[in-house]
Amino acid sequence: MTVSPMIHPVILCGGSGTRLWPLSRKSYPKQFSRLLGEESLFQACARRTRGPGFADPLIVTGDPFRFIVAEQLAAIEMGAGAILIEPEGRNTAPAVLAAALHLAQDAPDALMLVVPSDHVIPDAAAFRASVQAATETARAGHLVTFGITPSRPETGYGYLELAPGSSSTASTPQPLARFVEKPDAARAAQMLEAGNFLWNAGVFLFSVQAVLEAFRTHAPTLCDAVAEAVSGARRDLGFTRLAEAPWRHAEDISIDYAIMEKTPGLAVMPFAAGWSDLGSWEAVWQETGPDAAGNVVSSQATAIDCRGSLLRSEAEGLELVGIGLEDMIAIAMTDAVLVARRDDSQRVKEAVAALKARGAVQSVAFPREHRPWGWFETLARTERFQLRKILLQPGATLGTQSHAPRSATWVVIEGQARVTLDGAESALLPGQSAHIPAGRTHSLTNPTDAPLMLIEVRTGTYLGDDDVQRFAG
Questions:
Q1: Per the omega criterion (within 30 degrees of 0), is the bond before 22 cis?
Q2: Which is deepest, 163, 250, 288, 399, by most CB within 10 Å?
Q3: pTM of the entire structure?
């Protein structure tokens, strides 16, 4: 009996985090946020690609996101086949090629399902069924792209034109005529009326060997750089770091431009069960489901005499109130607030660019920063004072270290801490504290199987994290 090759999901997990600012930022793109429901877009994507015939996903991400990826997978009790770390973002073609070369080492006969981590597909079962329906075509050596049945004359998406005689409602892959760039409004309306155009979802299915052959044929220079980066990869705390020097020589190019638009015999799998790239706050408003007045309101927001508006408070203890608003967006964070007309939601990138030009850290940095041991969030800061909330995961340790220019006080809020100061250990329970004078050797451990939450108060002449002197043990 012939055993069909497993489908290996390849989840692309990078992004600049500008379109849904201030909730999404360069240091914490939208796929990690709980925009719709209790799970992040990344977690929903990982769940969507789990089932019979699917292997554990291979994640391609950047160094700043590696611990977030691992933490969010663990939270939904999922593992990864591998987590590849890109030294820097180089677009989708190098990322997909690196994944294919990595899979070729252990699963050369596999099928690759390439999916962005930040899309919304409500019907996961329908998506898996659609993928299964495309496997025979992919096993035959065709590159399959997935096309979404358009619901409006959208100008923000690229399109896929089906070949003559193909059906946009077929349940099997159809021949693809060509890729179409993002159209203007008039052209988008024409394509919608024609009925033989689908939105380009950026989702692909192909065999490892077929996509490698396509890269060798149409992007040989890219192959050389990425192959060297993969062969020179090194293991680091359960991650696989691609070699930095050759990766820098890889062309910054999308998979569409690198190979898909150049490869003959492409197929498109129509998908009509619902999809969004959640590319703007307008899209979030649509996908969340406005109430009878057209409003979408978070649990810490209140709408009074508002219509067609999105009100979200993302800061614990911060209440957002809108009065008499119409077709507005208001997003409140601990360190930034966005207010805009709903039809201007695509202009959020302009706000990010303006903040970046001013040197505002809010343009790129998220208030919460993740580490191997947990995370910390800055609550307040002046030149000589910083207030942080810190979470240590069960069993985690902040290693032995010292800080010459600053002192710190730790106050336990939840859990139990073990503090070591100059070799002397002490246990702290909720409400208890420890003071760490400047220059003193110290470490912090969570010795329990529950999270440890504490408040850290820093004072001194320098408050950055790069002043640390680390010690063994």
A1: yes
A2: 250
A3: 0.85
